[in-house]
Design a protein that fits this description.
Length: about 350
């Protein structure tokens, strides 16, 4: 038996898979295996001494076999895992386009991606997000913003009032967030807010009773109009991807800013197409100005200590200009074909 050991060890070493190894193990160490049979054969030996000597020899052989079976099992298991991993390897070189074109996975709505793009611009410049309620009172929507009840601007806002609550309304602009924020935060601050506003307007190609506005507020010591102009110019360049885009600050009026301006961006209109960034025409983008001292006083901020600027713009309008969308209602139609064209896969 001793003489067979090298052959057996060699057989174990040269097995190439686990089932083969199991079969060999059964043939040697199993119930009717060679080693088990040899142990049973001990009973036939005539003397105790012989039994002892032979028994010890078989045990050494059995231990050597068990040890070699164990190590070969480990080798073959590792090999099997490696083979499985190789067989399951992903081919990541497959082009992405075939998947996107053929599938019907959703798209991100252009309003959502624009909102994210704008938020990203301002957040990178130290602005934090602020929010306010959509159901407001007259103080936050009008009075605190220097629009007293007799003021014509109050009538121009086409306000939706809440039934049986005459002092409550759906906010007509996000400038309310300036007042809401200043109730809990004090300057210096830089805030940006994006949200729904409501006006009892017509429903046509350029008006909907609900739309979104973006509001910005910057208050600090020694802030002046140059800061406002620099920020807005940079914003327009980034938004439309045109370096040094010509921007015009046109004097205007808002009750909550003094001086006030509307911002136009250079454009060309040719064959019904709008090209942003150059040409002799101008396109209105947003309203802005230096925060009126009355607004600051209404919020318990000393206008002699802190100054700042504010700006407001319509998200839908920017989205339409940027994407060449002619009718605002398309933004809310939920038309899948339209969304496939104007939607995107990432922000
Ligand atoms: N609230 C104005 C509107 O709805 C937009 C606006 C203009 C906001 C000038 C501002 C601003 O903060 O400074 O038409």
């Amino acid at each position: 038996m001793q003489s067979q050991l090298p052959t057996w060890l060699n057989q174990i070493k040269t097995t190439t898979d686990l089932p083969q190894l199991e079969a060999l193990k059964a043939a040697l160490l199993g119930k009717s295996g060679a080693v088990t049979q040899a142990l049973k054969g001990l009973a036939q030996l005539p003397s105790i001494e012989e039994k002892k000597a032979k028994g010890a020899e078989i045990n050494v052989i059995r231990d050597a076999l068990i040890e070699n079976f164990q190590s070969q099992t480990q080798i073959l298991e590792a090999h099997a895992i490696k083979q499985k991993l190789n067989a399951e390897a992903l081919d990541i070189t497959l082009p992405f386009s075939s998947f996107t074109q053929n599938s019907s996975i959703g798209r991100i709505h252009p309003l959502t991606s624009l909102k994210e793009e704008i938020a990203d611009f301002f957040q990178k410049r130290g602005f934090t997000f602020a929010e306010g309620p959509e159901v407001e009172d007259e103080w936050h929507n009008f009075d605190a913003l220097n629009i007293p009840s007799h003021h014509p601007a109050r009538q121009n806002h086409d306000t939706f009032f809440i039934q049986n609550h005459p002092t409550h309304l759906l906010r007509t602009h996000t400038s309310t967030v300036q007042i809401r924020s200043l109730a809990t935060q004090k300057p210096p601050l830089r805030l940006i807010s994006v949200g729904r506003v409501y006006r009892s307007d017509d429903l046509d190609a350029t008006h909907t009773p609900m739309f979104h506005q973006i509001e910005g507020l910057v208050l600090d010591k020694n802030i002046h109009m140059g800061h406002l102009k620099g920020l807005i110019r940079e914003f327009c360049s980034t938004l439309f991807g045109v370096a040094d885009v010509p921007v015009r600050f046109r004097p205007s009026f808002f009750p909550f800013t003094e001086p006030s301006a509307e911002v136009d961006i250079a454009c060309t209109r040719k064959d019904g197409k709008l090209v942003i960034g150059k040409g002799g025409d101008w396109l209105e983008l947003l309203g802005c100005g230096m925060v009126h001292p009355n607004v600051l006083t209404n919020c318990d901020v000393d206008p002699l200590e802190y100054q700042g600027f504010a700006f407001g713009m319509g998200l839908e309008r920017l989205c339409m200009i940027k994407n060449g969308i002619a009718d605002i209602r398309q933004l809310y139609d939920g038309d899948e074909t339209w969304l496939k064209h104007f939607g995107s896969f990432s922000f």
